[in-house]
Structures are given as C-alpha cells and as structure tokens.
What we know:
Blueprint: H1 2-17, E1 30-31, H2 38-60, H3 72-78, H4 80-89, E2 103-104, E3 113-116, E4 120-130, E5 133-142, E6 148-153, H5 160-163, H6 175-181, E7 184-189, E8 200-201, E9 205-207, H7 211-221, H8 226-243, E10 250-255, H9 257-268, E11 274-278, H10 299-302, H11 304-312, E12 316-321, E13 337-338, H12 351-367, E14 374-378, H13 389-398, E15 411-412, H14 418-447, H15 456-462, H16 464-475, E16 488-494, E17 498-508, E18 511-520, E19 529-535, H17 542-546, E20 549-550, E21 556-557, H18 560-566, E22 570-574, H19 582-591, H20 598-615, E23 619-629, H21 631-638, E24 648-652, H22 658-663, H23 690-695, E25 702-707, H24 715-731, E26 738-743, H25 753-761
Parallel strand pairs: 1-16, 6-7, 6-10, 9-13, 10-11, 11-12, 12-14, 19-22, 19-23, 23-24, 24-25, 25-26
Antiparallel strand pairs: 2-4, 3-4, 3-15, 4-5, 5-7, 8-9, 16-17, 17-18, 18-22, 20-21
Amino acid sequence: MQIKLRIIAVFAVLASQAAAGPGQGLPGTAPLEEEGDLAAKMVAGIDRYLLRETERSRASRQSRWQPDYSSADAYVRSVAGNRERFRKITGAVDPRVRFEAPSLDAAVGRPALLAESAAYRVFAVRWPVLKGVDAEGLLLEPKAAPRAKVVALPDADWTPESIAGVDGASRVSPFAKRLAESGCLVLIPVLVDRRDTWSGDERYSFTNQTHREFLYRMSYQMGRHVIGYEIQKVLAAVDWFSTASPSLPIGVFGYGEGGLVALYSAAVDPRIGSAAVSGYFTAREGVWQEPLYRNVWGLLSEFGDAGIARLIAPRHLIVEAAKSPEIDGPPAVAPRRKQTAAPGRLSTPALADVRAEIERAREPFTKLGAPDRLVLIESGGGTGAPGSEQALAAFARSLGLSMKTAGAAPAVTGRVDPAARMHRQFSQLVDFTQELVARSPGERQRFWSKANSASIESWQSSTEWYRRYLWDEIIGRLPDASEPLAVKTRLAYDKPAWKGYDVVIPVWQDVFAYGVLMLPRDLKAGERRPVVVCQHGLEGTPQSTIDPVAKPDGSLRRPWPVELAERGFIVYVPQNPYIGGEKFRTVVRKANPLHLTLFSFILGQHERTLDWLASLPYVDPERIGFYGISYGGKTAVRVPPLLDRYALSICSGDFNEWIRKTAGLDLASSYMYTQEYEIYEFNLGDTFNHGEMANLMAPRPFMVERGHHDGVSIDEWVAYEYAKVRRFYTMLGLSGRTEIEFFNGPHTIHGEGTYAFLHKHLRWPEPRKSGGGNGN
C-alpha cells in the first residue's frame, strides 16, 4: 500500500509539472542550474580526469612490479611478466625468419661495397626479419677481427649513410663510423621516415600522414606497431650476432627515433648487453603531445621510460641528453593530398626532466650492485649534438673497448638510392600488415575456440572470459563510479505529447553523464514502460537528435527520439563524448597510454545512467533497449554486449566488416584515409570484429539497420559480417531475435523495421498508424 501511494505521489508531482514553466526538474532530483555547453564541459571533465591520472601513474604503476633483488638472475625472472607485456604492447610478436648472415645488396653496375677506409669497409646489406619483410641498411666491417657487435640506429629522417660517415653530412654525428673505427662490427638498419610520399593508395587518395603514422594505424589495430616492426629488425640482427662469434658483446646505440628503438629493443631482449639512447629518454607523461606513431597502448600504466630502463637492469644503459629531433607537426598538405594526419610535435626535453627520469630508473641498478651501469651523459647541457665523445666512450667501456681517435672519412666507391630503399621498406611493412588483416578471420576463430555455443547456457558461461577480455584488454576498464547518484534535472522541452528533461549524473571526479529524458504525457500511475536509449553519432548532441536539423541538401534530419516518444516509449538521449574535434581526440591520446579508450568512459557513463533509469518508478528495468546510429552504432556493438541491463541493441549506419574498414586499404572510406585517428583499438583485429561483438548480445535481441547508399561501407561487407551473426543466432535457436533491414537510403535512421523490432522485443504495442519514415 505504501509503495502504491508513493508511486501515485510521484505521478501527482509529474502531473503538476505539466503546467509548470521551464526549469522545473524531476521529483527526487536536485535542480540543474549549470549553464553553457554541457557536451563541451563533459569532454573537458574527462580531460581533467586523465591529466590527473597521468600524473598519478608515476606512483601507481609501481604496483605492476614485484622485483626480486636477491640476485641478478632472480631479478630477471621476477620481471619476466613485465617484459612479456612490454613486448606485446610494442607489437614485436611475430616469429622471425632464421638466416645465416645478411646478404650483400648489389646490382648490375652497383657493387655492394660502398666505401672503405683504413679501418673498415661499408657494405650495402639486407637481412630477413619477418615473412616477406627484410631489413636493409649498411654493414660496417672492421678490417681487424671485431671485438664487439653493435646495431646503430639513426633517427627516422637520417639515412644509414649519414651515421656511417659516408654522405659527408656535417649536421649528423657519424657515431656508427666511430664505433667501427674502434673495433665494432656495426649493422645499421633503415628506419621508416616521416615523409608522406607513399601514405595512401593511388586507387583512392593520398594523405599527409607520415609513413610512420600510416603504418601505425593499420598495425595498431592488428596488435602490432611500427615500433615493434623496427624492434624486430634489431632483434633479427641480434639473432645473427648471437650465432656468429657468440662470445662477443652485443650493444645498440640509437638517436632520436633510433634511440627509442634502441631502448625498447634492449628492454625486450636480454641478449643485448649494452644500450646507448641519445636524444630520446625523458619523462613520458606528455607522450600524448608527441606524434601518433609513438602511442603505445598502456605504456604509462606500467612503464614510462624509467620502467623500460628497469627491464634493462642490471645490464648497461647509457643515456645521452642531447638535442632531439625537432618536429612541429605532420607534413604540410601538398596538392591532391587529404589532410588526415594526427597532430604531434617533438622537441628537446628539459634536462631536469631527463635527470628526474634517470633517478626514477636508478633503484634496480643500485639494488643489484650495478649503480655505475646506468650512466647519464649531458651533451652541451642537454642540447648538444648526439654521439658526443663522452657518450661514445661510456658505451665503448660498457662493451670492454676504448674509443679510437676519429679517422678520415671513408672513400666512397658506390651509392644506394635512399628513396627506392625507403619505398621497399615501407611497402614490405604495408604488405605484411595487409596480410595480417586478410588472415584475421582465422586468427579470431582461433581466439574464440574456447567459447561453447552448444546451448544458450554454455554460451553465456563460456563467453564471460571474452566479455572481460573485451572490456579489460581492448576497451580498458575504469573503476566503478565513485560519485553518489545525486542526479540533477531541469525541464527542457514541454511538448503536447511528451516532456523532456536535461539530466546530469555524476560518475567520477570531474566526469558526468548527461542526456535528455523524454516522458510521454499519457503515463499512468503505477505503469512501468520500456525505455529506448537513442544514441547520436559523431559530433552530435541530444538536441541535434531530438530537434529537426537541416541537412546539407536542405531536408530535415529525422527527429527519431520524438517519434519513439510519440509511440509511447520512454526515451533517453545520452550525450556521448565524441564531440569537439581535436578536443575529444586529444582525450583519446591521453587515455591510450593509461590502458584506456573513450569507450572506457562511455561504458561507465551508461552503467551509471542505467542505475538511475532503473530506479525510476515509471521505468521497467527489464525493458531498456539501445538504438544507436553511426558513432552511436559503434556504441551499440560495444556497450550493450557488456552491460546486461540493456535488453536489446540496434546498430544503425555503422555495422561493418570493421577490421577491413579500419586497417584495410581496399575501401575508399577506410579510416586509413580519414581524420578519425582516434578510432583505432589495439589488437582488435585478431580478437573481435563487429560479428563477435554482436554475438555477445545473445540471447538478447540484436538488429542492424543499413541504407544502400550509406557511404560508411558497402552492402556486401555489411551483409558478410551480419551473416555470421544470423548463423550464430540460428544455431542457438534464436533466429527470431536478430534481423537486418536494408533500405534504399543514405546514412540515416529509417525507422521501419527497427521500430517494429523495438515494439516486438520491448513488448510495447505498435500504434495503429505506422510512424515509420522514408529514410529522410
């Protein structure tokens, strides 16, 4: 009786508000007095949250380590898990090709011997790394028996010849030459450069993405990385070093991007006894400001440069604080190229930051009795040239050598075309990654081999691990909401058939959920109705979804939440944080190094929203459906599958052969050619496509809405991916719970089959006259 009276009282308040003016809120909520752009404030709050967590990561990442300092061997064993996780997030995961020795790279009219001095010879060489992928570069072979073996790594925009002293470039330190003169056998691989010459496809378009970014995008989606590919080239050289004269010490010395690769390679492979890193090492909490190709999934949640150094201890690490490569941003947009590159800058770090990061790395070296093996060299006060005499001398000592006096430049006897060589290197890595994309259906099948679809019960129990994996490892999981459910509302719409309320729901410090709740006026006391959560697309707002908005062709965008409210559904239109252009994309850049994505926040916001919706006396918590278009369609295959309180999900204008769409090159609308660089999710390709995500909805209903003229994909890809879902639901005896509707229209809500789907599965009677539209 008391419950009935309480419900009646609530509806009495609602009835009284029908005549109230704007500004009135819902009963049981506080007044919403916040003014201004709530969508922008949401993104800004997430940004503040991430900046705070980035600063905290320096301390919190220590919990990921359990070092054993009882001996060097015990320490190496105790960080084996950290090393393996680091190897995986850098994408150095593919088996390397075995080989006996590098091949001399000669051609008709061009001998392999390129230069010679009194102390060493320079050969053009190549060596196999991965299937179909070679490293190319130079071999500097001392004329006397070598006393150490070194991989020397130039910056990405330097040629191997520049550090070998062959091209005579005065601006570049020829540190490889000096090492060869001092008795080292030196191998110098080419690194992928920062030009944009081949970043695109002649069938569709070219972009201003650097070669490194272009490779990064496709490889990141496949659980690889341009960094990982270059680590593999170094480790292939180490494979050879370790079999030929295995007693000789092995070292790596790199500058700029080469310094990054040298540091990472030594962390991954303990066979490297000495590493010298010039112009790279510093505090990495600002990595989100660096070029996109330096984005490493979860880097700051466990490592940072000091953490990577911990993986090298107690071996030798020489850090040279020197002038770094200075990059203001991506290449300028040339004619017939699209401006799609991500922003990002490189600058010389402050010496104080380098010193502080060295101190954070010092503990394992000291506790393992090797404090002198971590060395900081300050070239010109931290802004001098790389490869200083002090840095070279320290590196030589770590190899048991002493530096010889610099000799004359070698006499050049041959030339290699650096542009043709770079094109080969770039194309091989593109082809290798595209082969990964082509093979990904088989890899996903293997990944899913432990899922049991013999029955609904076995499917639900056996896929719990996959749900956790999607949330924890692909999307990134945040803690449960930390803020009380203190909801604020205000009346925003007062229409003849429904009323709409702005709603703000706290989630975490600085982070809130925001949306519009639409209540039909014919709600009856004690009645509980189904809810449809209507999710907008990229750069959308609840208001742009509710209010008719003019499209470029002059027609009006369809206010589909209004149509659903007029059909009697309670409707909630949430604001998702993919709005604000670079502001929200920068949020993603800040999130990724913390093992988070934008959907980490979206999931938390929807969880908290469901908490509130389920608490409302007029909502049936068992009948809350989700209907999203475009970016909201991305949400439809990521959020409802993980949040069981969503009774169904409809994906409109987005369902796709998603891996080919994001990482492939054979579709004009591929994200490889667009500005949405934030779209990529590490290692999604070998784990989840849209079909696998949709299957996690089972046994709950799932539907796809697709316009024939929707440019996000082609019908054949959508039908191919959906066929897997249809087959799966049928095999589980659930064929009546999944549908696809194709319609003759563009990227829009069609609202015919989907509306019928909502009425059927949310168990709400359809109106006598269809409110379905014609694709406008």
